[in-house]
Amino acid sequence: MQTQALVLRSAASRENDRLITALTKESGLVRAFANGARKPKSPLHAATQPFAFGLMHFTQRGDTYTIKEARPEGVFFDGLAADISRLALANYCAALCVELAPQQEGASEHLRLMLNALHFLSIGTRPQHLVKSIVELRLISLAGYLPEDPSLQRICAAPLEQAFRFIMDEEALLDLSRTSQIYVQHQTGRKFSELTYWENL
Q: Could you give the CA distance from residue 130 to residue 53 in angstroms, rounded to a whole number?
């Protein structure tokens, strides 16, 4: 399988390997091994870092996926790492996506959403609470839980390019952030440690 993919999680595996969780355009969430990817000179090194995006070629044997080839087209980590708060929020968005995105089916809208969110977080040109709320509301609606509130539905239904351009004062933005957070926690039945970390910064 060859598809566009965004690395949401990347963990050490064995001596020089990585185990990644990627959001793919064609097959949703995929967990795959990247053999030798932790070696700096590995052709898989850059493409399997957290928040790297590119074209990946997966092979499958039984239930196990392995990355055969990968060509990075963008790496958001450096921009995110410039601000610990933005990196922490990106980690929460990734964790929420892992919770809600599908497996074994297309996820092009999820991928577009996450790429836009990571772009704005990495360059720091949108309020973090706005990015958080848009990711929360659109991921939960894509999972089939569309809010009943008309204002929240507007955020879920707006073209993605417009959603990140919503302008509101700080009080309204914080209220939106609290509302979207409560709704997501109610629908998922859990609170994310990544969110708690971001809130405590």
A: 23
Q: What is the pLDDT of residue 180?
A: 98
Q: Which domains does the chain possess?
A: 2-74 (2.40.50.140), 77-199 (1.20.1440)
Long-range contacts: 161-166, Cβ < 8 Å, 24+? 161/116, 163/134, 163/138, 164/116, 164/117, 164/120, 164/126, 164/130, 164/131, 164/134, 166/130, 166/134
Q: Mind listing the pLDDT tens digit for each residue in 133-161?
A: 999 999 999 999 999 999 999 999 999 98
In this predicted model, what pLDDT tens digit does every residue of 67-90 receive, in sequence order? Answer: 999 998 999 999 999 999 999 999
Question: How far apart (Å, rounded) are the C-alpha atoms in residues 50 and 76?
Answer: 8
**pTM of the prediction?**
0.95
Burial class of residue 87, CB neighbours in 10 A (0-12, 13-18, 19+) = buried
3-state secondary structure at position 197: helix
Read off the pLDDT of residues 30-45 as tens digits, 9 standing for 90 and up: 999 999 999 999 999 9
CA distances from 26 to 73, 74, 118 (A): 17, 19, 20
| Residue carrying structure tokens 């610990």 | 84
CA 106/CA 124 separation, integer angstroms: 29
Structure-derived torsion over alpha carbons of residues 29, 35, 40, 46, reported in degrees to the nearest 10: -20
Query: What is the torsion angle, in degrees rounded to the nearest 10, for the CA atoms of residue 75, residue 70, residue 97 and residue 99?
Result: -140
